[in-house]
Design goal:
CATH architecture of the largest domain: 3-Layer(aba) Sandwich
Structural class: alpha+beta
Oligomer: single chain
CATH topology of the largest domain: Rossmann fold
Largest sheet: 10 strands, mixed
CATH class of the largest domain: Alpha Beta
Distance between the termini: 24 Å
Order of helices and strands: HEEHEEEHEEHEHEEHHEHEHHEEEEHH
Shape: globular
Radius of gyration: 20 Å
């Protein structure tokens, strides 16, 4: 969900690439190869009468720890830090350690009134992570609600499902005792004050001097061109969904060995997600790994296409929609480009570059949305692994899409 509202905007698992400037020799088997930061900000309301995704974050941590236990620890070259908000005013940064067959939490710092929805607040946490867990590489996981690249101030009435959670049967993943069919948005859907825009996340990371190995958004609607382009200077890869993510989030237990690694297994991460959700109560889900380093070149090609071709309004309904909004925001990018009817040579140029942008992606045949009062199932006929909002007439999108750096680079 593109504008990472505080949840997406806030749930951050941080893994950033950092190279030591020291000339001193070191033992490669002892130096920390990867520090993973899991960023789980508050997604409820100010009074805590609505706890948002907090219970699901706890399950997510349990799932990660199941993966750590299965691997019999983290070894000497990997560290995992978690920023977890228990309320709007109470957050803690702690490290997960494996000791005697169990995972334990070692407090690093308690925060009172941490402004986790601001660039400065995120930078503060990242700098603490750098100080406490220096590493050659860093990675970031952000948990929460998401609305992609859209700006929090442009939503007057954010659509979300407020009805009671539905509990079904047990899943095959022991870390998730129940099945849920509500989905995740970015940040807090209970209080817009606990939301953050993507450019603020990018500037927060940039201020630390880090570049992430990857950023994983455990949120809805984050795999779009606008987000990938915005983050191109602060991460190598973006791991996210084009569509909605079921409220329980990522199946971390089965993904863990490939997430927590100096050399992440990106295709295996996508396969683990796909295998889990293909067998879920609602067998729907999509996940992509996007190489943000290739977004500049893609933007240049899109500028060529936009300079010579515009969308025939009669073809708008032919573009694959990958969201459940009444007025679509997130369209499959390749479906959109093909409906622009560019020349054969330009389309070939675009297709070749997309092969570099999308490192790995999988989608079920049907995707699921639960934005309003009843579920919507989306038949997937065209899927490239990344969305674009250029053709959107949604009010929230119209307010800001031409202000995005992606739009400016492609028009």
């Amino acid at each position: 969900m593109k504008k990472i509202i505080l949840t997406l905007h806030l749930l951050l698992f941080i893994a950033v690439g950092l190279t030591s400037c020291s000339d001193d020799a070191y033992d490669a088997e002892k130096v920390t190869q990867q520090t993973l930061l899991v960023y789980m900000p508050w997604t409820g309301n100010a009074s805590s009468s609505n706890s948002g995704l907090y219970p699901y974050f706890l399950n997510n941590i349990d799932s990660m720890e199941a993966g750590i236990k299965a691997a019999k620890g983290l070894g000497t070259t990997r560290r995992v830090l978690v920023l977890l908000s228990k309320s709007a005013t109470n957050s803690q940064l702690f490290e997960i350690k494996y000791e005697n067959g169990s995972c334990t939490h070692h407090p690093i710092k308690d925060y009172t009134n941490l402004d986790f929805s601001s660039s400065a607040g995120i930078t503060e946490v990242l700098n603490e992570v750098k100080t406490q867990a220096q590493a050659l590489n860093y990675a970031l996981v952000i948990g929460g609600h998401g609305t992609g690249w859209t700006m929090k101030e442009d939503w007057q009435s954010y659509p979300h499902n407020a009805k009671k959670r539905h509990v079904y049967g047990k899943t095959s993943d022991s870390a998730y005792p129940f099945r849920f069919t509500d989905t995740r948005f970015m940040g807090s859907v209970a209080d817009p004050n606990y939301s953050i825009n993507i450019p603020d996340i990018a500037s927060a990371i940039a201020a630390t001097g880090l570049k992430m190995q990857y950023i994983l958004f455990d949120d809805c609607y984050m795999a779009n061109a606008e987000v990938a382009y915005e983050l191109r200077n602060v991460t190598n890869y973006l791991i996210a969904s084009t569509s909605e993510v079921i409220i329980i989030g990522m199946p971390y237990a089965s993904m863990w060995s490939n997430l927590s690694s100096a050399t992440p297994g990106y295709s295996a991460i996508v396969s683990a997600f796909h295998n889990f959700y293909s067998k879920y109560t609602v067998p729907c889900g999509a996940l992509s790994v996007i190489d943000c380093r290739e977004m500049e070149t893609l933007a240049g090609i899109m500028k060529e296409i936009n300079a010579g071709y515009t969308l025939d309004e009669t073809l708008r309904d032919s573009i694959q929609v990958l969201d459940g909004f009444n007025q679509p925001i997130f369209y499959d990018m390749t479906s959109y480009v093909k409906n622009l009817k560019p020349s054969t040579s330009l389309l070939s140029k675009y297709t070749t570059q997309m092969g570099k942008v999308i490192k790995s992606t999988q989608s079920t045949e049907t995707l699921y949305s639960n934005l309003y009062n009843s579920p919507v199932y989306i038949t997937v006929k065209s899927y490239s692994g990344i969305t674009i909002s250029d053709p959107s007439n949604n009010t929230a999108a119209l307010k800001s899409k031409e202000k995005t750096n992606w739009w400016k680079a492609t028009h």
